[in-house]
């Protein structure tokens, strides 16, 4: 039998999700499967190819040499499958209408534009209304068609898909670090200025859980707006916590104490069950799911 006929796309998709998340449980959540089902699909692919694709290292899975060779081809298949799905969703070029997307101000400004360029190519008649806000918009009240959130919604009428677990670190401008020095210990880090964002007491409490003991005196400037807070950090007013996707792509910004364990936060894509049956919303939802679930560009 031809080897190309001995496995199916669901097995490749299971392998791809496991490779990109690093664990069976995270991959199962990403695909909306149970962990045993996903594990069986990966095992079936390994059996069909007669190779071991993963090896367990501690609590995580790491690709074997054979798995790394397969990963590049699997990603190519995934991109092809996405193009097929978009085409099958109903001649996306002819889909039109407005779709409102809500996300944080930082994600709206720094992360989503490349996805929207791709959407413009696929469905040029779709109109996008971006709601840049750091609060949680209620899709049940139709304040948005699609939401990107960092907490899982609990309402039963919503469809939520975990796309990735993103990371964040402390960042500072080169000019600021040249002036104040680059800390090497938590004690030295605690002597620096920081940019506040949101509720200051909650932020201090959160950082205390990371064994970083700060007071209000460390935060002499800040903003409720994430874009403004990041602009202040770029201008050298102090250090800021920022997602690695944004921080690493910003010229003149450096990671502070990169050996520290990064802050991890989930990225959920959410829509209403009824809205998910809309052709235009389905096209946008699927494109965002594909874009945001891939490794940082």
TrEMBL record:
<feature type="domain" description="HTH lysR-type">
    <location>
        <begin position="7"/>
        <end position="64"/>
    </location>
</feature>
<dbReference type="GO" id="GO:0043565">
    <property type="term" value="F:sequence-specific DNA binding"/>
</dbReference>
<keyword id="KW-0238">DNA-binding</keyword>
<dbReference type="GO" id="GO:0006351">
    <property type="term" value="P:DNA-templated transcription"/>
</dbReference>
<dbReference type="Pfam" id="PF03466">
    <property type="entry name" value="LysR_substrate"/>
</dbReference>
<keyword id="KW-0804">Transcription</keyword>
<dbReference type="GO" id="GO:0003700">
    <property type="term" value="F:DNA-binding transcription factor activity"/>
</dbReference>
<dbReference type="InterPro" id="IPR005119">
    <property type="entry name" value="LysR_subst-bd"/>
</dbReference>
<dbReference type="InterPro" id="IPR036388">
    <property type="entry name" value="WH-like_DNA-bd_sf"/>
</dbReference>
<comment type="similarity">
    <text>Belongs to the LysR transcriptional regulatory family.</text>
</comment>
<dbReference type="InterPro" id="IPR000847">
    <property type="entry name" value="LysR_HTH_N"/>
</dbReference>
<dbReference type="Pfam" id="PF00126">
    <property type="entry name" value="HTH_1"/>
</dbReference>
<dbReference type="InterPro" id="IPR036390">
    <property type="entry name" value="WH_DNA-bd_sf"/>
</dbReference>
<protein>
    <submittedName>
        <fullName>LysR family transcriptional regulator</fullName>
    </submittedName>
</protein>
<keyword id="KW-0805">Transcription regulation</keyword>
<dbReference type="InterPro" id="IPR058163">
    <property type="entry name" value="LysR-type_TF_proteobact-type"/>
</dbReference>
């Amino acid at each position: 039998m031809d080897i190309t006929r001995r496995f199916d796309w669901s097995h490749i998709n299971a392998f791809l999700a496991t490779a990109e998340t690093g664990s069976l449980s995270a991959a199962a959540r990403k695909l909306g499967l149970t962990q045993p089902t996903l594990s069986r699909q990966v095992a079936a692919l390994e059996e069909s190819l007669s190779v071991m694709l993963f090896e367990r290292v501690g609590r995580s899975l790491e690709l074997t040499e054979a798995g790394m060779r397969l990963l590049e081809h699997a990603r190519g298949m995934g991109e092809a499958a996405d193009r097929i799905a978009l085409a099958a969703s109903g001649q996306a070029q002819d889909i039109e209408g407005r779709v409102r997307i809500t996300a944080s101000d930082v994600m709206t400004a720094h992360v989503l534009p490349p996805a929207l360029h791709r959407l413009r190519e696929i469905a040029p008649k779709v109109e996008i209304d971006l709601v840049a806000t750091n609060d949680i918009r209620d899709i049940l009240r139709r304040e948005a068609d699609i939401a990107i959130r960092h907490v899982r919604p609990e309402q039963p009428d919503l469809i939520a898909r975990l796309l990735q677990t993103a990371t964040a670190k402390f960042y500072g401008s080169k000019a600021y670090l040249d002036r104040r020095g680059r800390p090497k210990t938590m004690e030295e880090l605690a002597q620096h200025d920081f940019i506040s964002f949101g509720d200051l007491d909650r932020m201090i409490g959160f950082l205390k859980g990371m064994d970083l003991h700060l007071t209000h005196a460390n935060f002499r400037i800040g903003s409720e707006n994430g874009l403004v807070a990041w602009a202040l950090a770029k201008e050298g007013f102090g250090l800021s916590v920022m997602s690695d996707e944004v921080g690493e792509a910003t010229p003149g910004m450096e990671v502070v104490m990169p050996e520290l364990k990064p802050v991890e936060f989930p990225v959920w894509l959410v829509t209403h069950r009824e809205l998910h049956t809309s052709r235009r919303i389905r096209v946008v939802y699927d494109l965002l799911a594909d874009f945001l679930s891939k490794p940082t560009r």
